[in-house]
Amino acid sequence: MKQRTAGDSHHLYELQQLERLIFSAWDFEGFYKNLLDFLDSQFGDEPKTFTVEDLRRIDQFTRKYFEGKLPENELWIVRAFLVGKLISEREISPLPSFQRVKIEELPARVRDAARNFHLSPAETKALEWTVNSGALRLTTATGETISRVQNVIFESVKNRETTRELRRKLEDEFFDTQAEINRNWNRVAITEINSAFNMGYLAQISSGNFVLGFSMADACDHCKALIDGKVYAVINPDEAQSYDSLAKDSEEYKRQVWLHENAVWVGKDNVGRSGSTRKKIDKTGGTSPENLTDRQHHEIFMPAIPMHPHCRCRWIRLHPTEQYVDSKGELQMRVTNEQEWQHWFNKRMIPFLDKLNVYGLSAGRM
Questions:
Q1: Are residues 56 and 158 in the same domain?
Q2: Which residue, 170, 200, 230, sits at the end of a domain?
């Protein structure tokens, strides 16, 4: 059987391992075998026309299987969050540790993580949000899996294929790296783990401090434009509010636009936003210029990690009085080039700090 293993290219060993573990925990080989056994026991070997009731039973079987994976989903999300927390803490330790995090020894549930790692109320809230967000993505992926299984069965029945041919098509869906179901769940694994890791990492950084975005070499254009080598302020999530209903000439609208463009916070994501700056006026129409209009600010991508499904970008803590970002977007130490640091600080950080002050936000220790 051909099967993709999530975590094939990474900047952190721990994330690579976590992706593989969560993907393995869903046990597609087990589901595939159980699904075939279920189909055989319910419908026999001969091609047939499936009734609405038949499809409902297949739906229930699939949903029950993946909903049963929610506790395991929480386990790996909690551990990814804690890996982000530990790595963030180690970066500011006076005696930094370069040992790998022992993932298998980390707690498996939110309550255990809160107790064993003495999480603050804000950290616990962030972890709960991350787990709930992951459960929503798992539910969505389950619905997509149900739909795809239905389509494969429909096609098989329509073409009057043998049971062996149906088995082979289902096998391809779950184990071929290019097939829809395999790709969908691989994407969920990457998104889940990276989201939890970055939330755990950000939760350790106080409001008014700064992070630098880091992307993989094969990053998409959106991540290159908004994440890689870009500096953002970390703010309290309460400072960021919905602004789509605000008057565009109001001061609060301008404040929220600036914050969404220049700051990040625990819980920030691009759900409901798009990487395209244009949208259809009539959704049933084509893409002719007459049927396109500009998206509003609240409808387009903002800097957030994950930027999109399958995103492997991450945040890195930045100390602007000790470090700077060179013309290539790479992090450098001030001591290596004082003049270049001063030029960067004057051009990038002073206006940034002034704007934070204007909007009532103070800078942290830099």
A1: yes
A2: 200
